Amino acid sequence: MNHFPQKVVDSKRAFRRELAAKPIGEKLRILDRMREREATIRRAAAALKTNRTKARE
After folding, report:
1. pTM for the complete prediction?
2. Is 2 left (phi over 0), alpha (psi -120 to 50) or beta?
């Protein structure tokens, strides 16, 4: 039997416990970094879409 799904669930639970134990300031810094990464990904996706549109013309 494959125990991979249970390992994923256990890992997620451990991560959530670790995150819950962090001070609010650290959680907010993590959130800021996540937002920065999201913005970077969105810009890259938009640039890719623009490049695809130009290539079709």
Report:
1. 0.66
2. beta
List the structure tokens of 29: 């810094």
Distance CA 2, CA 12 (A): 18
CA distances, 3 to each of 6, 12, 16, 47, 49 (Å): 5, 14, 20, 40, 39
State the Cα–Cα distance between residues 19 and 30, nearest whole angstrom: 10
The domain locations on the chain are 23-57
Please identify which residue in the block is written with the tokens 């996540």.
34
pLDDT tens sequence across 11-55: 999 999 999 999 999 999 999 999 999 999 999 999 998 887 777
